[in-house]
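Action item from last week, closing it out:
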Amino acid sequence: MNHAIALAAVDLGSNSFRLEIGSHEHRQFHRVEYLKEVVRQGNGLDADRNLTQESMERGWACLARFGERLRGFDSQHVRAVATQTLREARNRDEFIDRGSELLGFPIEVISGEEEAALIYRGVVSQLPVVNERRLVMDIGGRSTELVLGCGTVAQAVASYRIGSVAWTARYFPNGALTAEAFHTAEIAARAVLDAALDTFRLGSWDAAYASAGTANAVGETLAANGQGNGVITREGLDWLYQQLLRAQHIDRIKLNGLKEDRRPVVAGGLSVLRAAFEMLGLERMEIAQGALRMGVLFGLVDEEYAGDIRAASVQALMQRFAVHGLHAEHVAHTTQHLWLQLHPQAAQAPSSLEWASVLHEVGCRISHSNYHRHSAYILEHCNARGFLAEELLHLSQLVLGHRGKLKKMEAFMQNPDDALQLLCLRLSSVLCNSRRAPDLQGLQLRRKGQQLRLTTAPGWSQRFPLSTQLLQEEAEAIAKTDWQLQLELL
């Protein structure tokens, strides 16, 4: 029997301090609580690289609050790590001694290389286990980490003293947003990142991922303004650059999706991000869900990255929402059977179709009425390890459309493959209406253009009158789309 273990990671960043508490069960982490306080300790270094008394007091006050929440935790289940600001601070021992006492657990100042490795571990913990060559970039407050890896293994790590807090303070000190200030900031950033070109050469990765604060702030702002969903592109960065120039001053930035705590440092973060895109020849980066904190949490359980992470996530969702496993298996088997008849050369149906088949009833735990809508919401917004945001959105759309009128799915069904997946799932749901394995003997599904033809063995319609009626109703529903379903129910 699996027993949940409560684990906690504390990240003392240059911009914010964060506390992540997770419950580890079934090889999955479920967030229990997340606390974040904007401390901006990176702005608290004086000319001699000492933390000011004020900045230390802000940090200590935050750690005292985190410490209250962590009372009763086993020392083996908590890890607190500090990054660039405390790597630089000459009086860091004073801060760490008092901070560890207030937190109740020792604070470690980790190297830039270890930070990069933990970031990579956190990022890939939320990605599929595939032999994909990955570039991961994390722009923090005072440092930027770059990692090259293959699958779950980090192969090259690097850390550079450049970040959103430091660059905003240095190149936008009075808050003025001018083309000249951005130009100077980006030239300086490229000069720092120039050393990365020896290791991080274009062509060394198959996919690029951006992690943590700056990436999330930019990604959320772009998405809220129709400039991309879960992806940062050059075009999106150019759009955001123009919006900041129009604002003219940091205090006048008003953009949907940009959180108030990110507004004061977005200019520095954007200049570093634009410089990195230029230096590394990037055209796009996916927003990664994992980050340093997740890497720390997984380090606490010393989990090996083996097996199918997404399959484990699906299983965890089924258990969490009490999905009827046998019925889910019947629907998945039937969907697979229908799909392979349409694609006889395929070895199996797309994974997304299988996952949607077994998860289509996760919303029943909330309410059976309109459960498909609850299911779609859960899948779109859940934290399913191994899945990208667009994969979860695709699953949610399949589940949303597996029953009910198809008018709501018009945009989704413009893609023929998406439409066929959805129609296979709908037919499977009908055929499994008795919540028993349907009789598939002699049942054949064929396609010609946008017309599907379903035929059965002789006597099938007499033995299954309810299924026959439901299929006829389904044919009428499909006829209201660009697709047709012809029935030969013998």
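Closing note: Residues 452 and 485 are 5 Å apart (CA to CA).
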